[in-house]
Design goal:
This protein is α/β, with parallel strands linked by helices. It contains 15 helices and 8 strands. The protein binds iron/sulfur cluster (2 copies).
Length: 371
C-alpha cells in the first residue's frame, strides 16, 4: 500500500461559512485522481463536517467504485458516549452514512485520559473487538492525543489492537506536550504500526517563515513545504500511512506527485529540517525552553512549559487552524494539572527559571486565551 492516505476532515466546501456544505462534485474529482494514481486509503470520522464527510465519501467513492478498490477507516466518537447502547446506534449509522457493510480500519477516536476513562467504563475496546469478530471491521485501533505514559498504559491494557494513529510532525516530535517522538517509540516497543495524522500540523507547516522557506527552496526549488512535512513522517519505518487532509485539487496533485515514488528523507534533507525547526521555534512568543526547572516546585501543579507551548503554537501558526487541536491538549492538561489561573503568585517558578521569564505574567496571557 502507498504511504499517503486521504484525510476527509478538510474537504472543499461550496460555502466556506458552512462546514457541512461539502462540495461533493469536487470531492469526486479529487477521489478519482487519488485512486487513478494508485492510492487507496481514506480516513473519515463521525463528526467530520458534521457527518457530511462520511456521506460525501459514499457519493464520491462507494457508489462509484467496487469495494475492493479502496480502504476505509472510520472512528467511534468517545467523549459523548453515555451508555453501551450508544455504540451500536453510532456504528450502524456510520455504516449507513458511508454506504458500506464493513470498515477496513475502525478506531476509538481521540483518546486522552478523560476519554479513555469513559471508554473503559463502557467497555469500548470490547465493542470494537466484537465488531472485528463479526467481520464488520477488519482491523481495530485508536487515535491518540495525550502523553506517552498513558499510551503505554492503554497498550498494556489492550494488546489486542492492531494499530495506533498518532499526531506526528517535525515540530511536535520533541514537544513536551504532544510527545510525538516518545509516543512513536512506545508503539514500536509494543509492535503496533502507526498511522500518522496532522503531518503538516493542521496545514500550519505548509507556510513556514521566509528564512526557512529559502533553505528548503535552495535545496529543492520545486518541493512544497508540505511535501517536506509529509515525507518527514513517512520516512519513519514503523509508519504505514500518513494522512493528509487535502482540500483542493492542487494540494491533491502535489501530495500524490511527491509520494508517488516515495523516497525517505536523506541526511542532507534531515539537516535542513532541523534548521527549519530551529527557525520556527525561535519565533516563539514565550521563549520557554521546556527545561522544566519550574514545574516540580509549583504548589498548584501548574503545567507551566506545556501551557506555554500551546500558547506559542497559537502565536506561531494559523490560530484558526490550530485552535481545535490546541484546545484538546489544553483540556487534557487541566484534567491532571492546575489551570493557569490557579497560580497563587508565590514566585517559586520565576526564582528558578534560567530564562528569567515573567512566568506569572505569561500565565495570565495563557489564561486569557484558553480559559
Ligand atoms: S508563581 Fe504560580 S506558577 Fe509559579 S510556582 Fe507559584 S503557583 Fe506555580
Ligand atoms: S523554568 Fe522557565 S524555561 Fe524552564 S520550563 Fe519553566 S518557564 Fe520554561
Amino acid at each position: 500500500m502507498k504511504k499517503l492516505g486521504f484525510g476527509l476532515m478538510r474537504l472543499p466546501l461550496v460555502d466556506p461559512n458552512h462546514v457541512e456544505r461539502v462540495d461533493v462534485e469536487l470531492v469526486k474529482k479529487m477521489a478519482d485522481r487519488f485512486l487513478e494514481r494508485g492510492y487507496t486509503y481514506f480516513d473519515t470520522a463521525y463528526p467530520y463536517h458534521e457527518g457530511r464527510s462520511e456521506t460525501a465519501f459514499r457519493e464520491a467513492v462507494v457508489k462509484r467504485y467496487p469495494r475492493d478498490r479502496y480502504i476505509l477507516a472510520d472512528k467511534m466518537p468517545t467523549r459523548s458516549l453515555k451508555t453501551e447502547e450508544d455504540f451500536d446506534l453510532i456504528f450502524d449509522e456510520q455504516l449507513k452514512r458511508c454506504g458500506v457493510d464493513y470498515f477496513n480500519n475502525y478506531l476509538l477516536h481521540n483518546l486522552n485520559r478523560e476519554r479513555y476513562e469513559n471508554v473503559q467504563r463502557l467497555d469500548g475496546f470490547d465493542y470494537i473487538a466484537r465488531k472485528k469478530a463479526e467481520g464488520r471491521v477488519l482491523h481495530t485501533g485508536f487515535s491518540f492525543h495525550d502523553d506517552s505514559a498513558l499510551l503505554e498504559q492503554i497498550l498494556t491494557d489492550h494488546p489486542e489492537v492492531d494499530f495506533v494513529q498518532l499526531q506526528i510532525n517535525y515540530i511536535d516530535w520533541d514537544s513536551p506536550t504532544i510527545e510525538a517522538g516518545k509516543c512513536y517509540d512506545v508503539c514500536c516497543r509494543y509492535g503496533k504500526p502507526v498511522i500518522v495524522m496532522e503531518p503538516v500540523k493542521g496545514g500550519s507547516l505548509a507556510r513556514v517563515p521566509e528564512e526557512a522557506l529559502e533553505l528548503m527552496k535552495e535545496y529543492a526549488p520545486d518541493a512544497s513545504p508540505a511535501s517536506w512535512a509529509i515525507r518527514y513522517a513517512a520516512s519513519l519505518d514503523n509508519v504505514t500511512v500518513v494522512l493528509s487532509g487535502m482540500s483542493d485539487l492542487e494540494q491533491l496533485e502535489d501530495n500524490t506527485a511527491f509520494m508517488q515514488d516515495f523516497k525517505p528523507l536523506n541526511p542532507d534533507e534531515r539537516k535542513i529540517l532541523h534548521q527549519v525547526r530551529e527557525i520556527i521555534n525561535s519565533t516563539r512568543a514565550i521563549p520557554c525552553t521546556a527545561c522544566r526547572y519550574c514545574s516540580p516546585g509549583c504548589p498548584m501543579n501548574i503545567a507551566i512549559p506545556e501551557y506555554f507551548r500551546l500558547y506559542n503554537t497559537l502565536q506561531q501558526f494559523d490560530p484558526e487552524r490550530e485552535w481545535n487541536n490546541v484546545q484538546t491538549y489544553f483540556n487534557t492538561l487541566i484534567h491532571t494539572h492546575g489551570k493557569p489561573s490557579d497560580c497563587i503568585r508565590c514566585g517559586q517558578c520565576e526564582a528558578v527559571c534560567p530564562q528569567h521569564l515573567p512566568i506569572i505574567e505569561d500565565l495570565v496571557k495563557v489564561s486569557d486565551i484558553f480559559e
